[in-house]
Specification:
The chain is mostly helical. The protein has a domain of 75 residues: Serine Threonine Protein Phosphatase 5, Tetratricopeptide repeat (Alpha Horseshoe). The chain is 66% helix and 2% strand. β1 and β2 form a beta hairpin. One of its GO terms (molecular function) is RNA polymerase II complex binding.
Length: 1237
């Protein structure tokens, strides 16, 4: 319906532009003057007084007295009142009508009085439209106190209408007035129930009036119906109503074109709306409504343009200067003109005019949306002035003016989106963050894709997360903050996804990306880095597009943050380059003396971060230079001094570091970071065991920090927990009492760790301490593995992987344990940590022992023992003087010899046994040396006993096993060699066979390709020769191809002949020799396909129906759904053939390719031919398409007689019968359909 109405309306408006001018003037019939008869004496002639209706006095009292004294008729009172109304003196017109209805003559004749009452009602309604809502509003003429309100005039109109209804209840004028009063009351009502009641009453009245009497529709009622439909958002139906009025009364006042344009606007046809309003303005140049609506159109156009474009300036100028200003001059109380001008003044910061115009719009409008706009402008004015309480109040009123419930849903109403956004912004400025978040959440309930609401709400959630993060140690809020953190990320990511929608034409916001990066930087460094890199790309594009000529740079703060994230990901080279670029930028900014940029602070931070990077990368010399450079510029830079002290403490000897740490404690002893560094220094000092808690320097230092500086110092709490772990680990466990004390010490350590975790749930070192306590005290490996598995994703430290390897080894998960140790060794220790190498050796040894105990894996244990021996030797290379590592190597060699001796001969080799024997000899010597050393790892007698066992028993047993293995391998060597040779021969023969088959396959493919190429060439040559023969034959037959067709020239006058081929008795055209030859070619022939001829053309050529050939060429199609066989009652189908017969009357179809018609005989369906073949052979394959002759003979005789009769009547029609021919039911029964093509 929408498109139909739209096109009709547009055409009507277009047609009107070429019609005669239309004059819109509701007072067009009012004369310029009237003559009032004067009653004189009986003997004198009757005289009259001329009253100039264009120059009436302001006070109508004298005219009223004159008319009353002369007992004038109603028409004189009415004419003078209309004269006042014509010139805008509505009060004078009302006074005339009041005195006229109360005159003596009108009191006697109620029928004379009724029209005056009706006119008075409509004048009251006119005054109500232009009156203010409340008394005392200044409209600019200094008569604020004398103004009457809308309610006053509506009450006057109601009482007058009641008086008129008592005279004539069925008067159409009274009914229309009653409907308008109800409509205006509905617009002014604030209670939704009253609004609906009045609207329903108005709808009922106008529906009854619209139907009218005698079938004649009332156009004023039609206009009112359309207005009600528009108010109910039924824009398509309202458009139909306005178009009906325009069609019947193009000079209707009020102009229906205004309503048509409004409907088009709401339906999305804004250009059509503009055309309607321009036409309305052309008819009535003084139309204030058309002017202001055109202004809104041009303002809407500017929304999609750039402010720098010429189109923007032109549209904005036309909107404000040409249309809004003109509308405002025509009526300074026009509400929508006031709001438009107020918006303009707001952009110019003319806040005084904004307030005056907005208040006027609120008072004089009877449309809720316009009043909402007025409140919104007032709210923006106070929002701009910082008067947030008033702004919030006005935003709420603006929102209430447009409350509506969403379609198809019950619940809270939508309201006005800009006003709700303003409410939320003001609440944020007033620091009412709770109500602000609630406001934006409700906005997103009704407008899930509102970018502004998602952005602000996401920023509020983010600020809440940052505030809690800054207050380290807020207990019990971690879970809630985690939920808020996820909400913030979800909202801001939704906004970020909206940028990808090209239809929205949104540009990425750097501040949003920075906020999102800050949310990610805690545990998702990669996503944080992506956000910052996108900001970097935005700044690079700004620099690239800048045409000011000024040298611009990417912010060094941004480069620093990107470099920090690259540093955390281990990309040291990339981070180093970014730091250096940022330092270069700072130098350039310092030379330009850029305002608002503290280049010294930036250089200091960047230099420190670069030094930290060099330190982490192992370039301690470069880091030392940078730290010393920083201290040269800022000697009290504590962080740089601490890092430099740490570097010196790690050097050997650490004398310089000790001096520095002592000096730091003297100058900055209250700094918790300095105290933490000093605690770390104390932890590296040698301790005397057992440790005395009250006397240990490290314990006393941390206790002092907790008691006198910060009881929530997480480093001190974690360090004290570690000290208790060390103490518990070294405690005796011989008796039950010792074990109870040890358990309590572990529990004390866990208490410190728990407190640290309570203050900081992400304290990985405290969590690691808890896991260690679980393993050492309770052997709870499973729970500890869960903790270490989480920690390895957060803490980039080899100790986590070492501890994880210990726990996995305790659970006998050897492979995972080896993987964890290997990660710690190669990723964090450079492959040169003897402790980790020893752990690897121990795990491989334990794995070998486990495999040795099972028969199925006994052979695998040899490899495990070999790996254990390899790692033990590597550890010994790093600490060659360690008797522990010497013992470990000897012990593994001893176990390897013992294990390999016990294996069956088939599972070991002579070489392995000889290596084990050599290793056993080394182990015996090592055991002897270790037993004689100063600090043996075990009692010397035990070690000597093991060496003696190897020397006295194991060595002899191994020697005998070697002899047996040698004999076994020599005995089976010939068999093994023969088997190996046979296998190699079989493999070689198989490879040769596969190679031969591959060569044969390739040769066959080459042969096929060559044959295929020759066939293609022969086919092309054959096609070329046939084309040449066909061209020669066509030239001999006289075909004319100038117009691109295949028509045979007529030798003389008369109708044209049919296609080549002689006729047959069955009505078909027999295929000629050339056609059969082309049919023989089948798919290989490239001859052109035959084309169908139209029915009229065939009739004209046969000369049988000249009149039919002269008919107007109207295309018709005859469709037989069941084919010829179906029409004739025959059973069976033709498989692949389609049942389609087309009868066309246009000669243009001669050149169009048509589908092949169905066969009409069984022989034809089989591809046989009854006709003679001049070449002496039958046509091969599928026959070429045949064209049925239109003669009365042939296939029509085979059809249903009733069907034939219908066709005969169709052919015999006279030319004037051509046109819309109804389809006979009999044709439908035969599944035949005639339809215009």
């Amino acid at each position: 319906m929408n498109s139909f109405s739209q096109s009709n309306g547009a055409s009507q408006l277009a047609d009107e532009t070429h019609a005669k001018p239309i004059v819109l003037n509701r007072f067009l019939d009012v004369p310029s003057s009237i003559d009032i008869p004067i009653q004189e004496a009986e003997d004198e002639e009757e005289t009259s007084v001329e009253v100039d209706l264009d120059n009436l006095p302001d006070d109508p009292t004298e005219l009223c007295v004159l008319l009353d004294n002369e007992n004038s008729q109603r028409n004189f009172w009415m004419s003078i009142a209309l004269g006042y109304a014509k010139h805008g003196k509505t009060d004078g017109a009302i006074e005339m009508l009041i005195k006229g209805k109360d005159s003596e003559r009108m009191q006697r004749d109620v029928n004379e009085r009724l029209p005056l009452l009706g006119a008075l009602v409509w004048l009251y309604l006119m005054k109500a439209r232009g009156a203010a809502r409340s008394a005392g509003v200044d409209n600019g003429n200094g008569m604020a106190g004398e103004q009457k309100t809308k309610d006053y005039y509506l009450n006057q109109a109601t009482s007058t209408l009641n008086e008129a209804i008592r005279i004539d209840r069925d008067s159409i004028v009274n009914r229309l007035a009653r409907g308008m009063i109800s409509l205006m009351k509905s617009a002014l009502a604030t209670n939704p129930a009253d609004k609906k009641t009045n609207m329903d009453q108005a709808t009922k009245i106008f529906e009854e009036a619209y139907r009218g009497h005698g079938g004649k529709k009332n156009m004023f009622a039609a206009m009112a119906r359309a207005r009600i439909l528009f108010a109910n958002k039924k824009y398509a139906q309202a458009l139909d109503g306005y178009q009906e009025v325009l069609l019947n009364r193009p000079d209707m006042d009020p102009d229906p074109r205004i309503g048509i344009g409004l409907c088009y606007w709401q339906l999305g046809y804004k250009d059509d709306a503009k055309m309607a309003w321009e036409r309305s303005l052309e008819i009535d140049p003084t139309s204030k409504v058309a002017n202001i609506l055109l202004a809104l159109y041009h303002l809407s156009t500017t929304a999609g343009l750039s402010e720098s474009s010429p189109e923007f300036a032109e549209n904005y100028r036309r909107a404000i200067t040409d249309y809004t200003q003109r509308a405002y001059k025509l009526d300074k109380d026009l509400p929508i003109a006031c709001t438009t001008f107020a918006t303009y003044f707001f952009s110019k910061k003319g806040m005084g005019n904004v307030e005056a115009l907005a208040k006027k719009a609120i008072e004089y409008t009877d449309i809720g949306t316009v009043a909402s706009d007025g409140w919104y402008l007032l709210a923006r004015k106070h929002h701009y002035a910082g008067e947030y309480e008033k702004a919030l109040s006005y935003y709420k009123k603006s929102n209430e003016g447009r409350l509506e419930k969403p379609r198809g849903a019950a619940g809270e109403e939508k309201g006005y989106l800009p006003a709700r956004l303003g409410m939320g912004q003001v609440q944020v400025l007033m620091k009412d963050y709770g109500p602000a978040k609630y406001t934006f959440e409700k906005i997103l309930t009704h407008y899930p894709k509102c970018i502004e609401a998602m952005t602000i709400l996401g920023a509020l959630y983010a600020e809440e997360v940052f505030a809690v993060g800054a207050q380290a140690g807020v207990a019990g809020a971690k879970d809630d903050i985690g939920i808020v953190h996820r909400k913030a990320i979800q909202l801001l990511e939704s906004v970020r996804n909206c940028w990808k929608d090209s239809k929205r034409n949104l540009r990425p916001d750097s501040s949003l990306l920075l906020t999102l990066a800050k949310l990610y930087e805690g545990d998702q460094h990669e996503k944080a880095l992506q956000c910052l890199q996108q900001v970097q790309q935005i700044e690079m594009e700004i620099i690239k597009d800048d045409e000011s000529g000024e040298e611009l740079h990417i912010q060094p703060q941004l480069l620093n943050n990107i470099a920090v994230l690259q540093y955390h990901q281990g990309n040291y080279d990339v981070a180093r380059e970014l730091y250096q670029t940022a330092l270069t930028t700072c130098a350039a900014l310092a030379q330009k003396n850029a305002e608002g940029v503290d280049t010294d602070a930036l250089v200091t931070t960047l230099s420190y971060n670069l030094a930290r990077l060099e330190e982490a990368a192992g370039n301690t010399e470069e880091a030392t230079k940078l730290y010393e450079g920083l201290l040269a510029r800022h000697e009290h830079y504590v962080d740089a001094n601490m890092r430099l002290t740490y570097i010196y403490l790690r050097k050997s000897p650490p004398d310089e570091g000790i001096k520095r740490i002592q000096k730091l404690m003297q100058t900055d002893g209250a700094n918790l970071e300095v105290r933490a560094l000093y605690g770390w220094y104390l932890s590296r000092q040698k301790k005397k065991f057992p440790i005395n808690i009250s006397e240990d320097p490290e314990m006393r230092h941390h206790k002092h920090s907790l008691q006198h500086y910060d009881k929530h110092d997480r480093y001190a709490l974690t360090a004290m927990g570690n000290l208790y772990l060390i103490i518990a680990r070294e405690m005796k466990r011989d008796t039950e009492s010792d074990r109870a004390k040890r358990r309590k010490t572990y529990e004390k350590a866990v208490e410190f760790f728990d407190k640290a975790l309570l203050l900081d749930g992400k304290n990985a070192y405290a969590a690691q301490g808890v896991a260690i306590a679980l393993v050492e005290d309770r052997r709870n490996y499973s729970q500890a593995v869960g903790i270490f598995t989480k920690l390895k994703e957060t803490v980039k430290d080899g100790a986590v992987f070492l501890n994880l390897g210990h726990c996995l080894a305790g659970l006998e998960q050897w492979s995972r344990s080896i993987e964890a140790y290997d990660t710690a060794l190669n990723k964090y220790q450079g492959g040169k940590d003897h402790n980790t190498l020893t752990c690897l050796g121990r795990v491989w040894y334990s794995k070998g022992r486990k495999e040795k105990g099972a028969e199925s894996t006994a052979a695998q244990s040899i490899e495990s023992f070999k790996n254990a021996l390899s790692f033990a030797k590597k550890a010994l290379e790093l600490a060659p003087d360690s008797t522990v590592y010497q013992f470990n190597v000897a012990f593994v060699q001893f176990q390897l010899a013992q294990t390999i001796r016990q294996l069956p001969e088939a599972q070991k080799t002579l070489a392995d046994m000889e290596d084990a024997a050599a290793g056993l000899d080394e182990a015996i010597k090592t055991f002897t040396a270790v037993a004689r050393s100063k600090n043996p790892p075990y009692p010397p007698q035990d070690i000597d006993q093991r060496a003696a066992m190897g020397r006295n028993s194991l060595a002899g047993q191994l020697a005998r096993a070697i002899d047996a293995q040698r004999a076994y391998e020599s005995t089976n060597a010939a068999k093994l060699a023969e088997s190996r040779a046979r296998r190699e021969a079989e493999m070689k023969k198989k490879e040769e066979e596969e190679l031969r088959k591959q060569e044969q396959l390739e040769e066959r493919q080459r042969t096929l390709a060559e044959e295929r190429r020759k066939l293609v060439e022969e086919s092309r040559e054959l096609a070329r020769r046939r084309m040449e023969e066909e061209e020669a034959r066509r030239g001999a037959d006289g075909y004319d191809t100038e117009d691109g067709g295949k028509r045979k020239r007529k030798a003389g006058g008369g109708g044209r002949k049919g296609r080549k081929g002689k006729g047959r008795e069955d009505g078909l055209i027999e295929t000629s020799e050339s056609e059969r030859e082309r049919g023989d070619a089948g798919a290989e022939s490239s001859a052109p396909r035959r084309r169908r001829r139209s029915k009229s053309q065939a009739l004209a050529e046969d000369g049988e129906d000249t009149a039919a050939a002269d008919r107007p060429k109207k295309r018709k199609r005859l469709t037989k759904s069941g084919g010829v066989a179906a029409a004739s009652g025959k059973k069976g189908g033709y498989g692949k053939y389609k049942s389609a017969e087309t009868v066309d009357s246009d000669e243009d179809l001669d050149d169009e390719e048509m589908t092949q018609p169905p066969p009409t005989t069984l022989k034809e369906a089989k591809g046989e031919d009854d006709g003679e073949d001049t070449a002496g052979k039958k046509t091969k394959g599928r026959r070429k398409p045949r064209v049925e002759d239109d003669s009365d003979e042939g296939p029509l005789e085979e059809l249903d007689p009733e069907f034939v009769e219908k066709i005969e009547r169709y052919r015999a029609r006279k030319p004037e019968e051509e046109g819309d021919v109804p389809i006979d039911p009999a044709l439908r029964d035969n599944d035949v359909e005639m339809e215009d093509d």
